[in-house]
């Protein structure tokens, strides 16, 4: 089989990409003082130089006191941080690449003591980090309004420093996802209720961004069924439920969906071979990015023993199979994470047919991250 489908250009509104390979967002905590520095510039420029079609940055914290949950994560607010990102964007563009920041608020994941505001609590819909597990405070209406404005301002600033799009992080049990998930959203106002009503917070964020950046600036939205608090959690058990969940986000202004799964080759619903990205594209008509263990070998198990590949030892789906599904237009783009973190030349190796040169992923092999 051929991998050629991975290297077809694609036009997504105003966003012209040279190929279908996306660099997935990966938190690295390489930004002391929460400001992107020369290491960040070199890291992203190197992936652009080596053929990544679209880079989505590590999560960048919006300008709300509770947005940050980890040390040394870059912000996307404040003069110093924005100037750092301006240098990153310029370097990526100089190498012919395109780049979008992932806009992030961790919500109830936040623990006390995280700098630069160690006394700030975690914020969440109902003061819950998981079903029945309290952490932080339930958000007031003013808190909700403040966070919506923080996301919108981050998008405005991202556009001003030259980014090509923005991605809103609505996945993995962080703040926006905490509103989606019945286990963490017990509100009885307009931001709670059934699965469709629980999309309101995300939709208000997307609408606020759209109003501030205009119609020609792409908004990517990342979502997932699984949560880091519960790998078996699901927002939708049927295609009908998924369609109902996605429709308000489309109406709010999402241009592209980034559909996070742990293993891209796994089917989403019984009776169909489509994965989550495949179903999302089918139900919405919007471009979809698939992601999940692309390029990982079957021996890889995460350090906390929650396997990213099948624990039974079944090998990861091949790069050729991935390309075949892309050629069949099941989805439009493919996000690559750890494999591209480890090997900046991963894209070129695949493009040149040098699959035998692809390395098995291991944490021990990450000797340089730039």
Biggest β-sheet description? 8 strands, parallel, barrel
Number of helices: 10
CATH class: Alpha Beta
Distance between the termini: 32 Å
Name the average pLDDT.
91
What is the topology, as strand order, of the major beta sheet?
Answer: 3-4-5-10-11-12-13-14
Instruction: Find the structural class using helix and strand composition.
Output: alpha/beta
**Low-confidence stretches at least 5 residues in length (pLDDT < 50)?**
303-315
Radius of gyration: 19 Å
- Helix-strand sequence: EEEHEHEEEEEHEHHEHEHEHEHH
Strand content: 5-15%
Domain NADH:flavin oxidoreductase/NADH oxidase N-terminal: 6-356
InterPro entries: Aldolase_TIM (IPR013785), OxRdtase_FMN_N (IPR001155), Oye-like (IPR045247)
Protein name: 12-oxophytodienoate reductase
Pfam families: Oxidored_FMN
Report on the architecture of this protein.
- This protein has helices at 38-49, 79-94, 141-161, 175-180, 200-213, 239-252, 276-284, 319-327, 338-342, 346-351, and strands at residues 10-12, 15-17, 21-23, 54-61, 99-104, 123-124, 128-130, 133-134, 137-138, 166-169, 219-224, 256-260, 288-291, 333-336.
- With 370 residues, the chain is an alpha/beta fold.
- It starts with 9 loop residues before the first strand and ends in a 19-residue tail after the last helix.
- The strands form 4 sheets. An 8-stranded parallel beta barrel has the order 3-4-5-10-11-12-13-14, surrounded by 5 helices. A two-stranded antiparallel sheet has the order 1-2.
- The relative contact order is 0.13.
- It has a single domain (4-365), classed as Aldolase class I (TIM Barrel).
- The model is unreliable at 303-315 (pLDDT under 50).
